[in-house]
Amino acid sequence: MKSMMLTGIREMKMRTVEDPVIVADTDVLIRMERIGVCGSDVHYYTTGRIGNLVVKYPFTVGHESAGTVVKTGSAVSNLKPGKRVAIEPAMSCGKCDQCLSGRPHTCRNLRFLGCPGQADGSLSEYIVMPDKNCYPIPETMNFDQAALAEPLSIGIYSVRLYGSSVTGKKVGILGCGPIGMSILIPAIAEKAEKIYVTDRIDERLKIASDAGASWTGNVDREDIVEKISKMEPLLLDVVFECCGKQEAMNQAVRLVKPGGKIMIVGIPEFDNWIFPADIIRRKELSLQNVRRQNECYKSAIDMISSGWLNMDRLVTHRFPFAETKEAFDLVADYKDGVMKAMIEF
Question: What Cα–Cα distance (Å) separates residue 70 from each residue in 24, 129, 148, 300?
Fold first, then answer.
């Protein structure tokens, strides 16, 4: 089969590799239909690493995936050939202390699609996944929406992990790419009182505004801390940092009210955040990291399939499989107002 593989920094080539095969009786062979280009995929493309996870070339990334079942292992009863599925990329062991305590997303033996040293990604014509990672989608849901269930599940989990309902709360979302949008949507659903959204790309801010953001601001043209502080003198209850940028974290610290919380969702390219110890101490701020998602995948599928929200607006660009590199360059360079680039097979 054909597989699109990273071969160096900002280098990617189509390679012919062995077809994947069913090994376990719970395995499912899937023909890929859609793959969304995620910011973490792009980190591996532009820098070759995220933290201590370093790419050994050649390597295949990709994890926002949807496809069609081709074949199943003998123990699979809920999936048949031809069934369309959304694919949960995190494969947990189900046996370690984390899994047994309800934290499969921090499994000690976790294997994640497109994560170096764990599992090859989904940028191939076919992949094999455990049946528990394959979620059947209704006929009303298209493959784009199925692939978007992965980032939306992270947004739903982020809002839940805040610890109390955002209903009636004043919320900031710094960085309005797909993850920021995936937080905006459940925050609107939970009836947050005000939602302030920032980004550097006007087209993204327009999508956020159309979706229901209370206010949007471009950080390259205005002092968003000054603007939001004037509108909210008591400041915000919670800020979701969604872009992995130090300057956004600096803004978050200034925007959160005393006793508030910063939800750290974005993945930075650097190794260490810097926090002003005096401010976070005096404000008694809480800092909560978000690790992907935990038991929110089905909720994301249900939310999309309900028809309540229009996830289609997130897909701004499409590329055939052979032009995956062009898609990665577009996202890496923030070109043409890109929100989500989708790879079509």
Answer: 15, 12, 21, 24
Express each pLDDT in 44-78 by its tens digit: 999 999 999 999 999 999 999 999 999 999 999 99
Task: Give the pLDDT of residue 16.
Answer: 98
Tokens of 89: 């990329």
Q: How far apart are CA 136 and CA 214, in angstroms?
A: 35
Report the interhelical angle of 39-47 vs 324-332 (nearest 10°).
90
Backbone phi, psi, residue 241, to 5°: -85, 115
What tokens were used for 121? 């990604």
Helix (H, G, I), strand (E, B) or coil at 261: strand
**Rg of the chain (C-alpha set):** 20
CA distance 331 to 325: 10
> Rounded to whole angstroms, how far apart are CA atoms 176 and 205?
7
Enclosing H/E stretch for 128: strand 126-130
One DSSP character per residue, 186-203 reads HHHHTT-SEEEEEES-HH
Domains and CATH numbers, the chain: 2-136+310-344 (3.90.180.10), 153-289 (3.40.50.720)
Residues of the chain with pLDDT under 50: none
Q: What are residue 304's phi and psi, to 5 degrees?
A: -70, -45
